[in-house]
Write a sequence for this structure.
């Protein structure tokens, strides 16, 4: 089973650098969230509002017909109201209380309500009926919960319905002789409904959209701050680990060297002891880098190298004799960006490359794909791929299925560090192996300037 790479290390940014990068990441995330999203309406809310309309329609029809004794086409009116009630009952029985309708379903439901109300008005005086103002209700609901395109479509439907009632007027149920108001009054009512539909829908949609953006921006800020706090906590954990593990690791290294010197070359344990010495030395180098954070890399932000060269430099330390590791550039080389080889960027790429090499059987391909607006780095291996139960959770801390019991922090650290540069990560399984895709918008990457 494939797992995530579990590594702790790499320098930590100073506080002012983290805050500026955090502000950029929050701004980009809030902008993305504010410009899109699947807008859904809660079915229970729509059903409740429709029941209120159905009860009000039935009460008004019965009051006018039985109490005021005005002539009405009772059967068609009650039939239309009963059909709306039947639709409500079917929806209530077919879906749960927490069901959220997709935008298309909510639009169809509100469109039906407009047509049903127009039918009732058409039989009871059309635009002369004072209840014609209720045509604004479905449009206002759409403006608060649905997209601008759907709201505009419903506005057009309301204007079309009012226009038909204006061209083909009917008499108010007033007396056996009926009542028809002057044409000028009907025209004024039509103008009022059209202008009211446009203005109220536009204002309601604008206010609701601002509220959505504020809510989504707040959620994006809270998520980014939570990830930054987790990463800061890991930085403190790394410093503590470097301090606490120094002495026992030095003892292990001394004993390993003594074992290497005391074991004869032809012993079957020679390779194992040599590997033990090598790994203990690597651990000491990692701890040394943790204890020297911020030293030796002050000039890195002012040095910019091509992306492919940076990947080759990072990948060099992970090459194995039994695994081919290739860096390939696809697209026009003139479009290749130059990046500052900051410790954060190198550590993030190293985590992902090391993970791919660790699970590959024969080959790891690092493909740099270049276009005019998008830059992608795909890290592909021919290993067993990501376990399905882990794939959806990659990027969260402490998620790992490594048999050796890793901490599950490698991908989380890499994703958080790359997000500071404006990158997004996508994890997927191939027919054989796994793929990690790192994508930057060229404009965002070119604006990224790490602090010294």
């Amino acid at each position: 089973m494939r797992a995530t790479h579990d590594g702790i290390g790499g320098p930590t940014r100073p506080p002012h650098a983290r805050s500026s990068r955090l502000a950029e990441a929050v701004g980009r995330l809030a902008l993305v969230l504010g410009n899109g999203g699947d807008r859904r309406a809660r079915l229970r809310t729509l059903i409740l509002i429709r029941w209120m309309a159905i009860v009000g329609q039935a009460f008004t029809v019965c009051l006018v017909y039985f109490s005021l004794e005005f002539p009405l086409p009772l059967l068609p009116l009650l039939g239309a109201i009963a059909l709306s009630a039947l639709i409500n009952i079917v929806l209530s029985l077919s879906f749960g209380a927490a069901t959220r309708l997709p935008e298309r379903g909510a639009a169809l439901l509100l469109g039906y309500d407009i047509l049903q109300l127009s039918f009732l008005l058409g039989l009871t005086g059309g635009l002369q009926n004072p209840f014609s103002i209720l045509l604004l209700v479905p449009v206002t609901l759409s403006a608060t919960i649905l997209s601008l395109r759907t709201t505009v479509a419903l506005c057009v439907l309301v204007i079309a319905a009012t226009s038909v009632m204006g061209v083909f007027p009917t008499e108010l149920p007033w007396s056996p002789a009926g009542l028809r108001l002057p044409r000028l009054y009907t025209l004024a009512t039509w103008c009022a409904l059209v202008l009211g539909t446009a203005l109220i829908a536009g204002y309601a949609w604008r206010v609701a959209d601002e509220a959505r953006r504020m809510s989504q921006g707040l959620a994006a800020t809270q998520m980014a701050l939570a990830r930054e706090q987790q990463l800061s906590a890991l930085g403190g954990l790394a410093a503590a680990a470097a301090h606490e593990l120094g002495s026992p690791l030095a003892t292990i290294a001394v004993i390993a060297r003594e074992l290497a010197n005391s074991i004869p070359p032809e012993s079957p344990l020679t390779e194992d002891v040599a590997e033990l010495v090598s790994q203990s030395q690597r651990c000491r180098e990692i701890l040394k880098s943790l204890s020297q954070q911020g030293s030796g890399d002050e000039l890195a932000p002012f040095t910019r190298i091509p992306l492919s060269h940076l990947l080759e430099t990072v990948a060099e330390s992970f090459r194995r004799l039994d695994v081919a590791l290739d860096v390939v550039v696809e697209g026009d080389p003139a479009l290749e960006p130059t990046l500052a080889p900051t410790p954060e960027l190198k550590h993030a790429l190293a985590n992902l490359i090391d993970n791919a090499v660790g699970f590959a059987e024969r080959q790891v391909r690092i493909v740099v794909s270049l276009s005019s607006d998008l830059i992608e780095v795909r890290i592909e291996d021919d290993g067993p791929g990501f376990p399905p139960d882990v794939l959806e959770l990659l990027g969260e801390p402490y998620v790992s299925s490594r048999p050796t019991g890793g901490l599950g922090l490698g991908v989380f650290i890499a994703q958080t560090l790359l997000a500071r540069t404006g990158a997004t990560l996508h994890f997927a399984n191939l027919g054989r192996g796994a793929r990690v895709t790192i994508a930057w918008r060229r404009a965002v990457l070119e604006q990224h300037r790490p602090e010294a």
In short: Residues 3-37, 294-301 have pLDDT under 50 and may be disordered. Residues 6 and 85 are 58 Å apart (CA to CA). Residues 298-452 form a domain with the Heat Shock Protein 90 fold (CATH 3.30.565.10).
